[in-house]
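S.,

Sequence below, as promised.
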Amino acid sequence: MRFIAIPILCLIVILFFRTTDQPPVEPEQKPEFRTSATFLYQTFYADRVVADKKYRDKVIQVSGQVTRIEQDDSGQVALILQGDPSRLSGVECLLHQSQIQRIQQLQSGQRVIVKGYGAGKKVHVRLRGCLLVHAPPASAVETSSARVSAVRVAYQPEPNIIWRILT
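The prediction came back faster than expected:
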């Protein structure tokens, strides 16, 4: 019985220390890679083994569109960036506890820049110890989306424009 209990206890200790909040990337730390969430996701989707060798434990700065914010049972908060519009998976940025206040103002569809350590791919491509590098204020997002709507309303192409030009 004792021979079984010792390995199980060691496994529990290893899993506990592996899943607890990891130290974040330092704000002044330069990223080894700068990429978009879409490109990073497609790289892992194409060849997980090669991408994992390239990005594992490296500092990666990713820009992308927020799809949602999740919290798991252990309290870990993750910011999910859109990786592939045709799939539900993307880039999962496991945020350091110091970033929770900053992400409360984020909205779905907002473009952000996040920096973290590459941690492979499960359902999502994962970054751990993430810091939010840049997020426009919520009012700027509303203004830009209102501007896009105004442009769409103002530009309504005339369906028979080619016919009128030819006649």
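The longest helix spans residues 2-19.

Coffee later?
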